[in-house]
Amino acid sequence: MTDAEQLLARVAAEARATRPWGWDVLPAPVDADTLARAEAALGFRLPPLLAALYTRIGDGGFGPEYGLLPLLENKSSGGEPAVVEKYLAMRHADDWGWPEGVLPISHWGCGMYACVDCRTDSAQVLLFEPNGGDPDHAWFVDSPSLTVWLTAWLDGTGWYEEDNEGLELPSWHDAQVRIAHA
Question: Is residue 16 within 8 Å of 28, Cβ to Cβ?
């Protein structure tokens, strides 16, 4: 079994065993047609691991805190829009700008999102945290990869864990360049 398969098996087991805040059930995975429609609407392909999460585990409803958002058609348990809808809305918003290929996959509350940079080979995970009010200081590197991000959730070592309170995330220095060229 490959490392990716082992990680997916761990995520699937945790997804079946626990519900993030507000989710009563684990939604069924999306089918290949739904994934294709989502990628067509976005204009880019999802990283393989992210696509596997949605096609093999569930259409959101698992993961840290509020869990992953649904991919295309449903609302999250907290009323947040699906990933594709949220991404397209943020790309067309005039106030902050949104970098191309940075997909909001999970809502942290208070306008904050965990986002996957679909333009990186590792599927780097970023934190969008706009509450400081400054677009130049709203982006942080949450994790160097989606693999590391999921592993931190499974191991209970993410920045959002009580034991890691006060942990400072590094700024994502490419944010303004990526927004300016989007």
Answer: no
pLDDT digits (tens, 9 = 90+) for 55-74: 999 999 999 989 999 999 87
Give me 7's structure tokens.
């990680």
Cβ 66 vs Cβ 20: under 8 Å: yes
Q: Around Cβ 80, how many Cβ atoms within 10 Å?
A: 20
In whole angstroms, what is the distance from residue 115 CA to residue 10 CA? 21
Residue found under tokens 């990680």: 7
Please choose, from the candidates 136, 100, 107, the residue with its C-alpha nearest in 3D space to the C-alpha of residue 20: 107
Rounded-to-integer distance, Cα 63 and Cα 43, Å = 25
In the chain, alpha helices (H): 3-17, 32-42, 48-52, 83-92, 146-155, 175-180
